[in-house]
Specification:
Blueprint (H helix, E strand, L loop, with lengths): L2 H21 L20 H7 L2 E6 L13 H17 L1 E3 L10 H4 L9 H18 L3 E6 L5 H14 L4 E6 L6 H7 L14 H10 L45 H24 L8
Parallel strand pairs: 1-2, 1-3, 3-4
Helix pairs in contact: 3-8, 3-9, 5-6, 8-9
Bound molecules: zinc ion.
Length: 285
């Protein structure tokens, strides 16, 4: 290499590392990933003492229609958990994706299901482990309907077993009830865009993983009305006639997703801040 070209090369390298340093992305000088799994042993005690709670995201490996990725639920749960961890001074744990997929998605390609009793036992061990790591408060940030049963059971078991512990389970889509989303006027899909692999879910996914969502890859579907206005659980082993997604895939957009993510982060954040501020308040009883 000629001297002048070597000097130019060095100057470019210096400019690049300065830019990386300013952006905080230098592998040498950049900021460390604040999540639990990226802490080195030497500062671990201080890190755990500094955090107010642990945050465990729960996802799935499940077909999400022609426009959504298989890891949709994990991407969303981890995305929310990461944002909330920085707002709430929480320690983000790795997302759990190997979970139970219910019968209605089992028949579709790419779904991977672990038996619900195994997930319940696994989750109980994970929660116990987080407590043994030094956290007495855990926010379980759920992205998948099939996790609700196992998560509630495991939380009930471990809070009873481990004195001084408190755990909150939030399923992100439940922070965005249909009437509130309808009021925003983001979707014309019906149900406020809610539904498996539908425009609400995939617009939120597009915020956290824009390149993993492709809008409009299947025909827009009519709204799936429910059978009643109160909560109920109806599961079917045979999904004949259902293409594995819901609503109008043409209405998926990251811009719409941003509005929903901001609203959900605000609502979950408010709940957790209130919980941390006054832990003497009753729980779900
Ligand atoms: Zn999903």
């Amino acid at each position: 290499m000629y001297e002048s070209s070597r000097l130019r090369h060095e100057a470019i390298n210096l400019a690049l590392s300065t830019a990386l340093l300013l952006l905080g992305t230098s592998p040498v000088y950049g900021q460390q990933d604040p999540s639990f799994g990226h802490q080195v042993g030497v500062g671990l005690d201080a890190y755990i003492k500094d955090k107010r709670l642990a945050i465990l995201p729960l996802g799935s490996i499940e077909y999400h229609g022609p426009s959504g990725p298989t890891l949709t639920d994990s991407i969303i749960a981890e995305g929310f958990a990461r944002r909330l961890a920085s707002e709430l001074k929480g320690s983000l744990y790795p997302v759990l994706s190997y979970t139970h997929a219910p019968a209605h998605s089992a028949a579709y390609p790419s779904t991977l299901s672990v038996r619900p009793e195994v997930v319940t036992m696994l989750l109980a061990d994970v929660l116990r482990g987080i407590v043994e790591n030094g956290f007495s408060k855990i926010l379980v940030l759920n992205g998948h309907d099939g996790n609700i049963g196992p998560a509630r059971t495991a939380i009930s078991q471990i809070t009873r077993e481990q004195p001084g512990t408190q755990m909150v389970l939030v399923s992100w889509w439940e922070t965005l009830p249909t009437p509130d989303v309808e009021e925003l006027g983001l979707f014309t899909s019906g149900n406020g865009g809610h539904g498996h692999g539908g425009p609400l879910e995939l617009s939120v996914t597009a915020v956290f993983a824009p390149k993993s969502v492709k809008a409009g890859q299947g025909p827009d579907l009519p709204s799936l009305g429910g059978h009643a206005d109160f909560p109920y659980y109806l599961e079917k082993s045979d999904t004949t006639g259902w293409p594995g997604y819901s609503g109008k895939l043409s209405e998926i957009s990251a811009e719409r997703g941003e509005v929903l993510v901001d609203m959900a982060v605000q609502r979950i954040g408010d709940l957790v801040r209130a919980w941390l501020a006054d832990e003497s308040k009753p729980g779900s009883w």
